[in-house]
Amino acid sequence: MSLQSTDQIADLITRIRNAILVSKNEVNVPTSKLKVAVCEGLKKGGYIAEYNIEKAHPRDILHVLINEEGKNASINEITKVSKPGRRIYTSADDIPTIKSGRGIVLISTSKGVMSGQEAKKLRLGGEILVKVW
Asked: Where do the domains of the chain lie?
């Protein structure tokens, strides 16, 4: 019997947050395309150092290396904005800025998952997935 989370992003975010709270810098989660896209956005924002997919049976594992305190941008707070029961959508003009531009939001657009700044440049709105600073 395999345990499967209904909200993949919330599972990833919770595991990252819990790892930070216990001073660990590595997290292993079952992989999915959406989790990989979120990790790519966090890596571009400088919040995680690296991620890779390890082949395993029966399901591949996503291995995430979190930035350590003091190196690049460390994660102070990471939260899921849009939830399965209440989706939060935004237009390109209304994309929120986090902590006066020191944080990022990840948005699921028609062109894939990207940061709020990228979405503004491309004039794309979408579902707000994650807020991190």
From this structure: 8-132
Q: In which element (H, E) is residue 118 found?
A: helix 116-121
Phi-psi region of 98 (alpha: psi -120 to 50; beta: other; left: phi over 0): beta
Task: Name the residue among 126, 132, 12 with its Cα closest to residue 74.
Answer: 132
Q: How many helices (H) and strands (E) does the chain have?
A: 3, 8
8-132 fold? Dna Ligase; domain 1 (3.30.1490)
* Mean of pLDDT values over 31-51: 94
Can you read off the two tokens belonging to residue 6?
Answer: 């209904």
Q: What is the DSSP letter of 98?
A: S
List the structure tokens of 69.
């305190």
Asked whether the predicted pLDDT for residue 70 surpasses 70, the reply is: no
Which has more confidence, 68 or 112?
Answer: 112
Instruction: Report the alpha-carbon angle 106-108-110, nearest 5.
Output: 140
